[in-house]
Design a protein that fits this description.
- By secondary structure, this protein is α/β, with parallel strands linked by helices.
- It has three domains: 10-221, 3-Layer(aba) Sandwich (Rossmann fold); 247-324, Orthogonal Bundle (Tyrosyl-Transfer RNA Synthetase); 334-419, RNA-binding S4 domain (Structural Genomics Hypothetical 15.5 Kd Protein In mrcA-pckA Intergenic Region, Chain A).
- Helices cover 47% and strands 13% of the residues.
- The protein has helices spanning 10-17, 27-36, 55-69, 80-85, 100-114, 129-132, 137-144, 149-153, 156-163, 170-186, 198-210, 247-255, 262-269, 274-286, 291-306, 309-324, 339-345, 350-353, 362-368, 375-383, and strands at residues 23-25, 41-46, 73-78, 123-127, 190-194, 217-221, 334-337, 359-361, 387-389, 392-393, 398-400, 405-409, 413-419.
- α12 (247-255) packs across α16 (309-324) and α13 packs parallel to α15.
Length: 424
């Protein structure tokens, strides 16, 4: 059996078990395992209903990478079997029923992003269908017989819905059981994930014990707050920073974070030493350090993690040039259209009747350029002062433009407007 490296210093132990960790069940047992020198099997599962991951996922991936550096084995489980079943209750929209082709495509993209952080050569990839593909009704009944309805109603979301009289499909009870059986199938020593997975992890721990295995440790990471500063990072909420976003965009989004998130992101997403983080924390509390300086350091660290130091430096130069010095970026997308047709498309409105030849309805162009979903959203952006043409903020939808004019929406989105009727 392969061995991991023994963790013998308190500093190394704290880095693994304290830095950026919400809860470990059972921490004393976890410490003994790390002291034993045994190579641990670290289970990380993912639902391939979506192909992309964001910085919220990176919190757990970074911790897995730390354990890899100590010689431990990651076991990545692709939940291909449950993804094909979907969630028939209709309550959980994040679990649509998928075809095997969709599952494979999503899994391929997910793993490309996963291995931006985790060492591919030290990762064992397992597909759920390896063990569930041969399951029959008898296997399912034997599995469900090991737990009671009362035990599952103790889960917070189930309990809340039950108390409110909202339906819970029997199928929904299967998901924690199937996730638990994954731990049995791969003989997991530790299962990693967010604090929202605590119930499922404990079911896995109990099922392993019932089936004669040593119960896994439950290693839970905090949920990363998204760019809105309020809710956990989520693609569905739009408050996320994706791991494959261009370096300039990634850097800019980190710079837009609320000051209150600076230390959380440093702790969960960087390797900046604890002593230095304490200096940052005290500096912010005493107002002796400019939060902008710390956010620049944070943005460099995150872009370097997912790309490299050179691209992080270029992203910082871009941010300084475009947002701090208010310069227009050298390259930007173009939106080509007939200025005359845009004016004609709103020919019935009072605003269009007041247009001069050089004027256009900017709200229409914002939608056409893909910078807003609707004219009403574009109008709100204009009213909020978030839109400018050639460096001048506009306060009304109708504004003069010329072929080559630069439209800016918000802090980071630019587009050059090109009149297709202009032959020059």
């Amino acid at each position: 059996m392969n061995a991991g490296r023994k963790v013998t210093t308190s500093q190394d132990m704290d880095r693994l078990l304290k830095r950026g960790v919400a809860e470990i069940i059972v921490e004393d047992e976890m410490r003994q395992l790390l002291l034993s020198g045994k190579q641990l099997r670290l289970k990380e599962g993912f639902d391939p209903s979506s192909p992309d991951i964001h910085l919220g996922h990176v919190v757990t991936l970074r911790k897995l990478r730390q354990f890899q550096e100590w010689g431990h084995q990651i076991v990545l489980i692709v939940a291909d079997w449950t993804a094909q079943i979907g969630d028939p209750s209709g309550v959980n929209v994040t679990r649509p029923m998928l075809t095997i082709e969709q599952v494979k495509a999503n899994a391929r993209t997910y793993m490309e992003q996963f291995f931006k952080v985790v060492d591919k050569e030290k990762t064992e990839v397992r597909w759920q269908s390896e063990w569930f593909g041969g399951f029959d009704l008898g296997d399912v009944i034997r599995l469900t017989s090991k737990f009671t309805v009362a035990q599952f109603l103790a889960r917070e979301d189930f309990n809340k819905r039950y108390s409110e009289g909202r339906p819970i499909a029997l199928t929904e009870f299967l998901y924690p059981l199937l996730q638990a059986y994954d731990s049995v199938a791969v003989k997991a020593d530790v299962e990693f994930g967010g604090t929202d997975q605590k119930f499922n992890f404990l079911v896995g721990r109990e099922l392993q014990s019932m089936m004669g295995q040593r119960p896994q440790q439950c290693f839970m990471m905090p949920l990363l707050i998204g760019t809105d500063g309020a809710l956990k990072m989520s693609k569905s909420l739009g408050n996320y920073i994706g791991v494959t976003e261009p370096p300039d965009d990634m850097y800019g989004k980190v710079m837009s974070l609320a000051d209150s998130l600076i230390m959380l992101y440093f702790e969960l997403l960087t390797d900046v030493p604890d002593a230095e983080l304490e200096e940052f924390r005290q500096g912010l509390a005493r107002e002796t350090v400019n939060p902008m300086v710390l956010k620049k350091r944070l943005a460099r660290e995150i872009v370097t993690l997912l790309y490299d130091a050179d691209l992080a430096g270029e992203a910082e130069e871009h941010f300084t040039r475009v947002f701090q010095q208010r310069e227009i970026p050298e390259e930007m997308p173009e939106c080509r259209f007939s200025f005359q047709e845009v004016a004609a498309s709103t020919a019935g409105s009072a605003a269009s009747k007041a247009m001069r030849k050089s004027e256009c309805d900017i709200s229409h162009i914002i939608v056409r350029a893909g910078l807003a979903k609707s004219r009403s959203e574009a109008s709100r952006l204009i009213a909020q002062g978030a839109v400018s043409v050639d460096g001048e903020k506009i306060s009304a939808s109708i504004a003069p433009i010329a072929s080559g004019s630069v439209l800016r929406v918000g802090k980071r989105r630019f587009v050059k407007m090109i009149d297709t009727n202009n032959k020059k």
